[in-house]
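@channel anyone free to eyeball this complex?
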Amino acid sequence: MMETVSLIGEWAIGLLVLAGAIIAALSVFGLIRFEDVYLRAHAATKSATLSVMFILTAAFLYFAFYLGEISIKLLLGIVFVFLTGPVAGHLNGRAAYRSGVSLWSGSVHDDMKAALKKEREGVRKKSK
Amino acid sequence: MLSTLLIASLAILAIAVLGCMYRLLAGPSVPDRIAALDTIGVILLSMIAILCMLLKTSAYFEIILVIGILTFIGTTAFARYIERGVVLDDGDGKSNR
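replying in thread with the prediction:
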């Protein structure tokens, strides 16, 4: 009985790790194939974070069930990656727009252009 | 059985790092390269987690945390650098040079 449970647990953890690895590979495929930096940030930020959370969760379960070790460090790593991955992607996209990286020619909508123009005019008036 | 799946996942992640290297070398703009570097750090972190499971040791958990923190700090510093031209400023948008 215990052996069956142990086997099922091994399969579940192995498939969780494999799913994380495949999601990471798909994310990198998007990073290579998409057209401009904003679309690439969409691929690189969200799915890479999801894949890391899959793999770290699998590691946490493995150490908890098979080696009897509840690791706070791994939990901290999961929470940290979950918080900082999207924030880093947002910072990178913001810096890209403000430093003048152009959008893909097939993009149809750009709300940031008007907002940025208004902000820059406000700064210029204040400095006069 | 588990170790076979883990080694297969390591191989997939290594190929993913190679794809990131392509974007890091060929990326047309600087933010492209920063996004690729961020992804490499995140993938490296999961590779070390898999290595921990493969070797049945908890000695490398600190490395997971340190790589996560360094990746975030590095992305933040690069983003600030290409946005303002300096990494640290006074907070009012002017540089302190």
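from a first look: The CA atoms of residues 59 and 85 of chain A lie 19 Å apart.
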